[in-house]
Please model this.
Amino acid sequence: MTRFTVNDRPVQYRMDPDTPLLWALRDASNLTGTKYGCGTGDCGACTVDIDGEAVRSCQVTIGKTEGRFVTTIEALSPDRGHPVQQAFAADNVSQCGYCIPGMIMAASVLLRRTNDPSDGEIDAAITNICRCGIYPRLRGAIRRAGRIMRGEDTGIGEQGAAAPPPGITPEEAARTVPALGRPAPQPKR
Ligand code: FES
Ligand code: FES
Model:
């Protein structure tokens, strides 16, 4: 039994402690916003926040996560209104979208440390790979997210109102999540 906190909920995983966190999140907790790209720690699609650090969840086991606090893209904001999410929408960053949750999680960790990062700090923090090539818009969106956090930007881009539509709440996400929800009733014998 491995115990830690996922999106502010205590979770117990009855899985092999060597199971990569990515698969516990996706398969046991149904938190499929965290993506599988390479499985080798290279692409960053699986990035989550563990105790304030951007971590590639394919590279850490649930055993090593014991007692820690994990935040996934589903709980970054209850309404997809985190400044990074607003900025990505305003700057129309996403193409196929597959890499975006990992990019957003890495960017949110960076901006928590500094809301006015230099290009060098952005490049050092966001080493994620995008097969669609969003890179030209990525730095700009992260800088916009910083401005939103500093109150210098409305989050409205050329696309118009950037306010994203209401998203799934952690409560809604947990409804179908066995590891996060109430224990299922046991069948009567
Ligand atoms: S799936 Fe984890 S880094 Fe690519
Ligand atoms: S938007 Fe398609 S992989 Fe990045």
Remarks:
- The pocket of FE2/S2 (inorganic) cluster (ligand 2) is lined by residues 94-100, 130-132, 134 (CB under 6 Å).
